[in-house]
UniProtKB/TrEMBL annotation, chains A, B:
Protein's organism: Streptomyces broussonetiae
PANTHER family: DELTA-1-PYRROLINE-5-CARBOXYLATE DEHYDROGENASE 1, ISOFORM A-RELATED, DELTA-1-PYRROLINE-5-CARBOXYLATE DEHYDROGENASE 2, ISOFORM A-RELATED
Keyword check for Ligase: no
Domain Aldehyde dehydrogenase stretches: 92-532
Gene: paaN
Keyword Ribonucleoprotein: no
Keywords: NAD, Oxidoreductase
InterPro entries, alphabetized: Ald_DH/histidinol_DH, Ald_DH_C, Ald_DH_N, Aldehyde_DH_dom, PaaN_2, Proline_metab_enzyme
Name of protein: Phenylacetic acid degradation protein PaaN
Gene3D superfamilies: Aldehyde Dehydrogenase, Chain A, domain 1, Aldehyde Dehydrogenase, Chain A, domain 2
Pfam families with a match to the protein in the record: Aldedh
Length: 563, 563
């Protein structure tokens, strides 16, 4: 057992980090305390590559006992998209025992106040950061992300998003002072004078419903926003991606214990296959906050049915890139090829519809017809993924059979400009690795519109021929308004087109990346600076991260008395 | 037509006020720019008492033409609770014309940015403030409040709440900078560099559904929070309390026009008797925000059905005062008597249940039995209202026949400790003025519990005999949890009881006033300092005013490009 963590220690160690995070969300300049390079780990208590891999290997086939109350069974069954059976089992909870136990420690956690709660959260993130190599393997073998992406997106980038949520939560809670003296003049009479105490109080127990593709990145904002605002958090991972969040819960419980709090403030709700426990938990009266990433259908169900809770959802959307003109044709092609390939297009931010005027596109390399643009893009993707090692490093594995089925069906939707192909993985023969398909659609045809107006999650994109830039802008507007979008991209050298696209994004509340041709991609956002989603279109009802994401996770109770 | 208002003028005139409001919500010390004393008006362009009365009188029997598009009829029919027919008619809107017209000016309003929007709102409030005497009569003759209360609560206090919302809205929008330069080091390679623009964008059209009792005080927070965050606002007043909000809309349209914006950013939706237009408007797709004060039934309906909108509701609650012991018996009685009498108990913050141990209460004047406490309180109310002139000045008129019917039925619920009596009004013979009734209930009896566990809005309070302080605390907890509470009061000299009551309020998110014996009352809150409601119990899903009240009325759209 490590030495107990005192408030003084936590302040000394982590207050500077919290202050830097607070400054970063104010300036939105680049900042991260979590190294992106795998070689940066191995000192100051962090696991290096070999130790991280060993730690992960040691987990395989074991029971991950979190010492939770009400554990009535052990469940598991994750199979890596790379073909490996993880064989880890997790506590299955009797929620009638677990939920009351989670409430027991809430008073002390509330009384700890915003600063100490924030610093305990930073310590949890620090311990997770130290084990980034171990988490990377856990994320890789649940999401199917390639190792480097699992390392970065599942490690430092997820930790950044968690810390960002802690900073927002802290800032929101300290906007109101702890106490105030209120003195109101009464003319010649004595003034009225009151002493007021203000206490941020939690809503209750928060439920985090994790997703398959980004268990940590999409999970940490809600988890840490709720915990930092005084709530207990029950973590219900996706059945295919339990391990990264189970390890997170383990770390959180350790840190809470060491800091003198009840470990049951964070608990895991793993489930049996087909149990569908999220639906049961979501409407329990104890659950007052829900964070969810996943399908529109279940997200809508939660919003409609979990009326006792504040519900934060990230659902499906249809992401568009308008390709109207460019001053860097090769840069555009490379940038788009990377965006379409990364993690086999299995990001909620991956572009799906590329809207290209059928009359072609003006470029620095001369005018390019619609067919030329599509063919050149196909070649760019082919070139990027021509080497199998590089393809494997970029693509990762197909996360589940549904995505594979959609990929295979996509070829029937139109003329295939780039066919998907299988890639063999040198280390994991059972891994399902596929390159993206690009399908040509004529935007003027109704069936094409039906195809491009619904989300086809996975390595599928549509090169949609449109009549004009105006037509593209109008289709973009309709797509965002009706289907939602996590991202929008546009390539144009025409200020009027740029303005028109920007106006649509402002009107429909979508995040826009313009003319990206270098090493930043439309599907990537950086914590502390970029917003992930807007919360203002159907793809998500909240953004990561802003004031609205944290402000309603707690309430402020005032006690006033005469001074 | 007044001279056009420039941004520079607005900054020079109102930026200091905005800055003071921002400082006030941070420190929560006493502050108000709006004078409470009627005699403070009459200079610098404001109407004095005579001019305000004349302006109100001149409105009677007229058509209030707001020059709104889509006006297809003129409707009215307000009858003052003091018996006067106002005879004012208002535009009835064809919403299929009005709503699109309201969207036309949104882009320019969005592009104006948070500061200019805030200062336009401050100018609107300033013009309303100048007409406080006129508004006071409008509030008096729709709500039934006595003149002085209508003047203060409907005037400066409502304006304070509006300004508070403007300050919160402004602060929230400028938390994210307008632009950011983001530069991410890449080791030996060139850094990645992006330029980012962040724009607060409105959700769409906001709907304010006003209430009968506090049209301005309860209406201004939502109206100004929505307008300051870039939304257009459609004001749907209570059919019995149109005039104060119609005048507000008129002022807002004038100021918007003078500042170069589209007046249709604020519009009125008056309705015919029984038209029930709120239900139709609430589910229109253009309506993205709703603020509502009123019955739990309709508030719940809005929350369940207006799914396309952010819904902020203040509904019914059951307010409790625990009377356990006191060091100032007379002060307590006077304070409670005033709280029960003010505006005939027709405040959402008026105490309903007084929980008193059946074994009595320790006081500075010796031990008092339950019966003595109730009798002494009845005497205190009687004394306070013994003089008809003072009674009229405190009580105001009964706002509608439902309240009168509830008051009359209350005497059957238990032993009447203080009977209600009629008071004649010297100026308005038809005014329905009634003193409050106090009914004794035995908390141990099921029918008593049923009575005290439902809201009996109006001049009715229950002196509930409980077994002990512990029993009182437990009933308090149950009442807040099941029925909600806008306010809780407690009188106790016992630190343990105080602690227990405070714990309940922290657990159940209710605002607590302790041992008030002077000139501050449990049913009053001050803008910039006190929260009205908590948003954490069933009485309201939001508090006035905090970050959560404004943060989701807009979204931030980011446009990023390579630097």
């Amino acid at each position: 057992m490590a030495a107990a963590l005192t408030a003084d220690q936590l302040i000394a160690q982590h207050r500077p980090t919290l202050d830097q995070a607070l400054e970063a969300i104010r300036t939105r300049a680049y900042w991260s305390p979590h190294p992106e390079h795998p070689k940066a780990y191995g000192e100051h208590g962090s696991l290096d590559a070999a130790a991280g891999k060993a730690a992960f290997d040691a987990l395989l086939g074991t029971r991950l006992d979190l010492d939770q109350p009400g554990t009535d069974d052990w469940v598991g069954g994750e199979v890596s998209p790379y073909g490996v059976e993880l064989g880890v089992t997790y506590p299955h909870a009797d929620v009638d025992v677990l939920l009351p136990a989670m409430r027991a420690g809430q008073r002390a956690w509330r009384d700890a106040g915003p600063e100490l709660r924030a610093l305990v959260c930073v310590e949890i993130l620090k311990r997770i950061s130290d084990r980034t190599h171990e988490f990377a393997h856990a994320v890789m073998h649940t999401s199917g992300q390639a190792f480097m992406m699992a390392f970065q997106a599942g490690g430092p980038h997820a930790q950044d998003r968690g810390l960002e949520a802690v900073a927002y939560a802290y800032a929101e809670q300290v906007r109101t002072p702890g106490t105030a003296e209120w003195t109101k003049p009464q003319g010649k009479r004595d003034p009225l004078a009151l002493t007021k105490e203000f206490t941020p109080v939690p809503r209750g127990i928060a439920l985090l419903i994790g997703c398959n593709t980004f268990p940590t990145w999409n999970g940490y904002p809600g988890l840490f926003a709720s915990l930092a605002t005084g709530n207990a958090v029950l973590v219900k991972p996706h059945p295919r991606a339990v391990l990264p969040l189970a390890l997170t819960v383990q770390v959180a419980r350790q840190v809470l214990t060491e800091a003198g709090f009840d470990p049951n403030l964070v608990a895991l709700a793993a489930e049996r296959g087909g149990e569908g426990i999220a639906k049961t938990l979501a409407v329990r009266p104890e659950i007052r906050i829900i964070d969810y990433t996943g399908s529109t259908a279940f997200g809508d169900w939660l919003e409609a049915n979990a009326r006792q809770a504040q519900v934060y959802t990230e659902k499906a959307g249809v992401n568009t890139v308008v390709v109207e003109s460019t001053g860097d044709y090769q840069g555009m092609l490379s940038n788009l090829a990377f965006s379409l390939s990364l993690y086999s297009g299995q990001m909620c931010t991956t572009p799906q519809n590329l809207l290209i005027p059928r009359g072609g596109v003006a470029t620095d390399d001369g005018h390019k017809s619609y067919d030329e643009v599509v063919a050149d893009l196909a070649r760019a993707v082919d070139g990027l993924l021509g080497d199998d090692a590089r393809a494997n490093a970029l693509l990762g594995a197909i996360v589940n059979p549904d995505v594979k089925a959609r990929l295979e069906a996509a070829a029937d939707l139109g003329e295939v400009a780039l066919a998907s192909r299988e890639i063999a993985h040198p280390d994991f023969p059972d891994a399902v690795v596929r390159t993206p398909v690009i399908v040509k659609l004529d935007g003027a045809k109704p069936d094409a519109e039906a195809a491009c107006m619904s989300e086809c999650f996975g390595p599928v994109s549509f090169a949609v021929a449109v009549d004009s830039a105006t037509d593209a802008v109008e289709l973009l507007r309709r797509t965002i308004r009706e289907k939602g979008a996590m991202t929008v991209g546009a390539y144009t050298t025409d200020p009027e087109v740029e303005q028109a696209v920007a106006e649509v994004c402002l009107d429909e509340a979508a995040q826009l990346s313009l003319n990206l041709t270098g090493g930043v991609y439309v599907n990537q956002t950086a914590a502390f600076s970029d917003f992930h989603g807007s919360g203002g279109n159907p793809a998500a009802n909240s953004a990561l991260c802003d004031g609205a994401f944290v402000a309603n996770r707690f309430r402020v109770v005032e006690v006033r008395r005469e001074a």
